[in-house]
Amino acid sequence: MDSIRTLVIDIKDWLDWLPDPVVAAIILGLAAIVALALHKWASQLARRLLAHRYPNTFSIFNQTRGPTRLALLTLAMIIVIPVAPLEPDTAQFLARLLAMAVIGLIGWTAIVVLNIAADIYLRRYRLDVDDNLLARKHNTQVRVLLRTIVGLLVLITIGAALMTVPSVRQYGISLFASAGVAGIIAGLAARPVLSNLMAGVQIAMTQPIRLYDSVVVEGESGMIEEIGSTFVTVKLWDLRRMVVPLTYFIEKPFQNWTREGSSSLIGSVMLYVDFTAPVAIIREKFIDILKQSNRWDGKTVALHVTDFKEGTIELRCLMSARTAGDTFDLRCEVREKLIYFLQREHPEALPRARQIALKEGMYSEQASQQLSAAPRPAARR
């Protein structure tokens, strides 16, 4: 460091024929250029040495490029400012900026370290598998708590940086000292933010919802796509997004289809057939359809006569699939194939009332066509 300062002094002596502000600007500019060039050279060297051999280490280095660049710039300014020909007021102003930069660097580094630690911790929990309940638990806790801590770190960093300015520091002291009406107004204004912040912590700990949970909110079915610091994004079945405050999932009831256990769900298909329908044969066909489908998870299969009405009996077909989407698709597949089976193999099992209505409609249409085609008597004059 002493050699660097000696070099800066030599440069200043070499440029003594220029005005002091110009010399100071040249020295500060050269220091910034050297710091940025050194950082770029270190980044290229790390890419060459680590990218292929140690990808995880290179990923960590890549995520810290911003803080390391700011650290080198700050270090270069700390070295050259004391020996640069600056006015006292300018030097004091730059010193305050450096103090704010150091505080910002500390906060930024803490945030980056937290993100890296969270990514390393969550690598062991994969979300791209069918039974990902444990992974969703850990991802929800880590992501929500991480956003909360990052928000607090940002506020603390900004507050600490502003407190380095005397005028702002005095204003902050006077503001905290006056705990009267201003404090009440600030508390009321910050109540929604604080309530969502506390709701986020509560959701992270108790987990009424998790990432990629299948939920029904306000009559809309969808999947928890993102849990932010103040809101939750629900991806609906038709690709719309519903944005809901965090407090909603603490204060109001909603449906969570994947709250416990695995992500598999049980779906049902209601079938209405005639009283003469062969229930045993339909049950065998239903089981055969499930065995041939790649959406069925092989766990739940049942067909029961659950009700009967004046002209039909009600059959309830139960089946399970790995995810909510597979359950919906499996139900549609079972409906289509069972209807086709009844139409082809057992048409007598279809509801008689519907057949009679069709026949009556056909007969009435034929009768109307015959009447329209019959010759009309000549009109009397």
What's the quick description here?
Helix content is 61%, strand content 15%. The chain has 381 residues and is α+β, with helices and mostly antiparallel strands. The N and C termini lie far apart (127 Å).
Which descriptors would you attach to this protein?
single chain; alpha+beta; SH3 type barrels; 3 domains; 381 residues; 13 helices
* Spatial arrangement of strands, main beta sheet: 4-3-2-1-5
Write the CATH architecture name of the largest domain. Answer: Roll
- The third-level CATH topology of the largest domain is SH3 type barrels
Number of helices: 13
In terms of per-residue confidence, which ranges show pLDDT below 50 for 5 or more consecutive residues? 174-190
Mean pLDDT: 77
Give helix % range. Answer: 55-70%
Beta-strand segment tally = 8
Rg over CA atoms, rounded to whole Å, is 36 Å
CATH class type of the largest domain: Mainly Beta
The largest pleated sheet is described as: 5 strands, antiparallel
End-to-end gap: 127 Å
Strand content: 5-15%
Overall 3D geometry? elongated
Number of domains: 3
The topology string of helices and strands comes to HHHHHHHHHEEEEHEEHEEHH
SS-based class: alpha+beta
